[in-house]
Amino acid sequence: VQLAESGGGLVQPGGSLRLSCAASGFTFSRYAMSWYRQAPGKERELVATSTSTSGVTNYADSVKGRFTISRDNAKNTVYLQMNSLKPEDTAVYYCHGRLGPFEYWGQGTQVTVSS
Whole-angstrom Cα distance, residue 44 to residue 81? Predict the structure, then answer.
């Protein structure tokens, strides 16, 4: 099982980034896929979730209207489009997959928002 994130980097406030998470080793389409983030000195927090069915998505209040989670089940990939980035969005972003008691984490990708 592998979740491989990419797309992180340094961006100025107000800018955009798109994170990708390529999954392998499990039936991706059956899993709820999420993005979490962890800033220095803070607990890991849920950013956005895409359920395995019905295309339902959920977002943390802090990112609603700015971030969009999407998934391509044919490519076993989940994305996080991040717009209007703020310095407080700076964190390591982690990809997560869950189906019942089974869950998997990626290794994380750093996003830094700074001028």
Answer: 19
How far CA 71 is from CA of 39, 41, 57, 109, in Å, comes to 24, 30, 10, 18
Using DSSP, state whether 87 is helix, strand or coil.
helix
pLDDT, one tens digit per residue, over 8-62 is 999 999 999 999 999 999 999 999 999 999 999 999 999 999 997 777 899 999 9
Cα dist from 2 to 26, 37, 44, 63, 107, whole Å: 9, 18, 20, 26, 9
27 to 13, 21, 24, 97, 102: CA distances (angstroms): 37, 14, 8, 10, 11
Neighbour tally for 26: CB within 10 Å: 16
Residue with tokens 């359920």: 51
Q: Which pLDDT belongs to residue 82?
A: 98
